[in-house]
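check this:
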Amino acid sequence: MAHLTKEQRYVISALLKRGLKQNVIAKELCVSCSTI
């Protein structure tokens, strides 16, 4: 199980609101798609 920092969670939230797909966000943050 991967643990995300508060900053990573903020980035994920912002990118999801912009409509980016989970796999794109996962690549940017170097985490698994299932982590998103």
